[in-house]
Amino acid sequence: MVLSPEDKNNVKAAWSKVGGQAGDYGAEALERMFLSFPTTKTYFPHFDLSHGSAQVKGHGKKVGEALTTAVNHMDDLPGALSTLSDLHAYKLRVDPVNFKLLSHCLLVTLACHNPGEFTPPVHASLDKFLASVSTVLTSKYR
């Protein structure tokens, strides 16, 4: 999915509002995903998935850092996320649908924390961006 210059500006502006809370938002999105889509828990059998657990927070931080990298490298997502794509495809073997589920939960989390900035155009741009990230992360499954 091609991001237009307007999409890129919307994503950068929205992510700038996240600031240092990317890890917290990542953890909240993971918690939403685990509660809303319980089958996603199967990839985390060794995690304490309770509210506020250190393991969910730790993985949320990784999600937030990966998305920050993606935002900073929108013109080369495959290069920026190559190592992460390899990890999820070859070692972890995560079902690709889970990236779409997490993307949905990230959108909900961003909308809850930034309702004034979460306009329809920003929503559409973030959705396209997260779909692009998901596509890159699942590209090595083929």
Give the helix/strand layout:
Layout: H1 5-18, H2 22-36, H3 54-72, H4 77-80, H5 82-92, H6 97-113, H7 120-138
Helix pairs in contact: 1-7, 2-3, 2-6, 6-7
Q: Give the overall shape, derived from the CA principal axes.
A: globular
Number of helices: 7
DSSP strand count: 0
The average pLDDT score comes to 94
Strand content: under 5%
- Distance from N terminus to C terminus (CA atoms, Å) equals 17 Å
Low-confidence stretches: none
Can you write the helix and strand succession as a string? HHHHHHH
Return Rg in Å.
Answer: 14 Å
Q: Strand pairing plus helix content: what structural class? A: mainly alpha
Helicity range: 55-70%
Largest sheet: none
How would you describe what is shown here?
With 142 residues, the protein is mostly helical. It contains 7 helices and no strands. Helix 2 packs across helix 3, helix 2 packs across helix 6 and helix 6 packs antiparallel against helix 7 (120-138). The protein is globular and about 40 Å long.
Main attributes?
mainly alpha; globular; 142 residues; 7 helices; 70% helix; single chain
Quick overview:
With 142 residues, this protein is mostly helical. It has helices at 5-18, 22-36, 54-72, 77-80, 82-92, 97-113, 120-138.
